[in-house]
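Posting this for the archive.
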Amino acid sequence: MALEAYAASKPDKIDTDVLSKARESCYKARDAFYACLEKESDKKPTEIASVGLLYPLECKQRRSEYVKHCRSSWVKHFDWQYYQKKRVQTLLDDQERGVKR
């Protein structure tokens, strides 16, 4: 990532604009990937992401952009949050319908 190269060349100076832009591009890529997941939710998930998150082939390019623009620890964290949110929503939906697990 360009941010690491910049930080390595100037270890005593952190440019907050660079950090802010990197975060912003990460968030945009993340949001685009999760929007794709929601849009393509009716398709069968065939690809595996971190923390057991599955996604359809149609979202593979968005996933690669997301992974490219975000730190791996952030990707894992965001994936875990999304996975947990979806899991809770599924349990609540099942409870409403009277389905027991």
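Residues 50 and 76 are 6 Å apart (CA to CA). Residues 2-7+14-90 form one domain.
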